[in-house]
């Protein structure tokens, strides 16, 4: 029963998102901006990992760290470094 409810919520959400994309005529410019942000987030994490400034802090490139940096920007990288250094 729970799977049916979750699939229903997912389907309704997908339909509403498609409606917004079609009605607002957003185009595909948001995909370009998202791609740019993903590349910059990966570059920020890559610089921290391989610069050699913080040898004890290695931040893995996974969906959780990437989404943190996507949402927060470069302060997200600082947040991940701070979490990594306090958890060691």
Question: Main attributes?
Answer:
0% strand, membrane, BofA, single chain, mainly alpha, 88 residues, transmembrane helix
Q: Structural class per helix/strand content?
A: mainly alpha
Distance between the terminal alpha carbons, to the nearest Å? 43 Å
User: Kindly state the mean pLDDT as a whole number?
Assistant: 85
| Helix and strand element order | HHHH
Subunit arrangement of the protein? single chain
User: What global shape is seen?
Assistant: elongated
Main sheet record: none
Number of domains: 1
Helical content band: over 70%
> Which residue ranges are poorly predicted, with pLDDT under 50 across at least 5 consecutive positions?
none
Radius of gyration: 18 Å
Strand tally is: 0
């Amino acid at each position: 029963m729970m799977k049916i409810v979750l699939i229903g919520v997912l389907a309704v959400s997908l339909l509403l998102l498609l409606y917004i994309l079609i009605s607002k005529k957003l185009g595909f410019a948001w995909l370009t901006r998202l791609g740019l942000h993903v590349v910059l987030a990966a570059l920020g994490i890559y610089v921290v990992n391989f610069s050699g400034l913080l040898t004890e802090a290695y931040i893995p490139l996974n969906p959780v760290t990437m989404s943190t940096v996507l949402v927060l920007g470069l302060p997200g990288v600082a947040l991940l470094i701070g979490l990594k250094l306090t958890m060691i």
